[in-house]
Amino acid sequence: MGATKGQGHKRFSWVFVLLVSGVLYAFALATEVVEEEPMDDEDEETSVCEAWGRPRYIVPSEGFGLSIEVQCIIGDTYLVRHDMPGPDEDPDLLRRYLRQGPYENLSKEQSIVVMEEAVRLWPQSHYAHQGLAETLLGGHGNQGDSADKRRAADEFLKAADLGFEQGKVLYVIEIQLPQLLAELGDKENLDRYFTRVFKLQPEGEARYWSYLAYAKALARLGDEQAEIYFQKAIAVSPEGVEDAYEFYARYLLEHSKAQTVLELLTPNSQVERAMYKPTFHSMRCQALEQLGRKAEAAAACQQARDLTPSLEMPNPVGIPGNRPSSRGPRAPTKLGLLACLT
């Protein structure tokens, strides 16, 4: 009886083991199928752009209004956010503009030839003129001799006009062109450009970056109207955005308008809340120095030091307003990021 009971237990144990093994094997097979199927689907949809030499993570879609090829070309570039091409733009032009595929590792001289040909082939596309301008400047920077800069400005202006005809203010041109025209001393085209910009942009916050770009360019030209446009930028400044305050204060310090700086940078004001605190107090320090208020200047300088110990403070015997930026490490503002392109 005991042997029969033991044999029964043993038989039950083997049956249980076999059942468990069968369940585990079936689960393993099911899991393998479930894992393989989406991988096949993923390979199929993410490898589309590889045919055009673009990353597999770009996933184009039908019905987007652009060809699959164009979606692959622009997929991870700034064009998607700021300068979406129309359905008639040639894929090869976009490759040239974005320096993809055969145009990726060319020298500046070779790139100029490529974009000069683009201007001949697609004279009504702003990408061709804008691309040639950027290439003449050495990419996203105001490099090159005066002849290259003059030619680049002319190409930017042609591109801008094509954008205006489409009712658009082109993103990169709005960043680069004003400072380039100011460097060339070309106030006539600077004024003409912003006259057309302001016709397209509604009054108010939409004009903030344009007012600020115009003010900076006018300041570089030594034009007194710069102050008017700094004030316009401040008037429409989005809440919490500091750039107009800072650039205007720098302009005022460079023009020895210290009292106006103090009126602008009032403690416990909206301006102080918006600005980077060490910069706010450092600029007050410089303004107080210009006015000969040494004790108050020392206190303001100390506030800046306390907030940012590594801050390079202005030299009290130096020339206020002509020192390097006193900004410490922080996340860059939008304008700071855009400055990387100029």
Helical fraction equals 55-70%
Structural class: mainly alpha
C-alpha Rg, in Å? 31 Å
Q: For the terminal residues, how far apart are their CA atoms?
A: 95 Å
Order of helices and strands: HHHHHHHHHHHHHHHHH
Describe the main β-sheet briefly: none
Arithmetic mean of pLDDT: 82
Count of individual helical segments: 17
Give the total of beta strands: 0
Can you tell me the residue ranges where pLDDT is under 50 for at least 5 consecutive residues? 1-43, 315-342
Beta-strand proportion = under 5%
Q: Characterize the overall form.
A: elongated
Q: Which secondary structure elements does this structure contain, and how are they paired or packed?
A:
Elements: H1 2-46, H2 68-74, H3 79-82, H4 91-98, H5 108-121, H6 126-136, H7 146-165, H8 171-184, H9 187-200, H10 208-221, H11 225-235, H12 243-254, H13 258-264, H14 270-274, H15 277-290, H16 294-307, H17 334-339
Helix pairs in contact: 2-4, 4-6, 5-6, 6-7, 7-8, 8-9, 8-10, 9-10, 10-11, 11-12, 12-13, 12-15, 13-15, 15-16
Give structural notes.
This protein has 342 residues and is an all-alpha fold. It has a domain at 241-342. Helices cover 64% and strands 0% of the residues. The protein is built from 17 helices and no strands. Helix 8 packs parallel to helix 10 and helix 12 (243-254) runs antiparallel to helix 13. It is elongated, with a radius of gyration of 31 Å. It starts with a helix and ends with a helix. Residues 1-43 and 315-342 have low confidence and may be disordered.
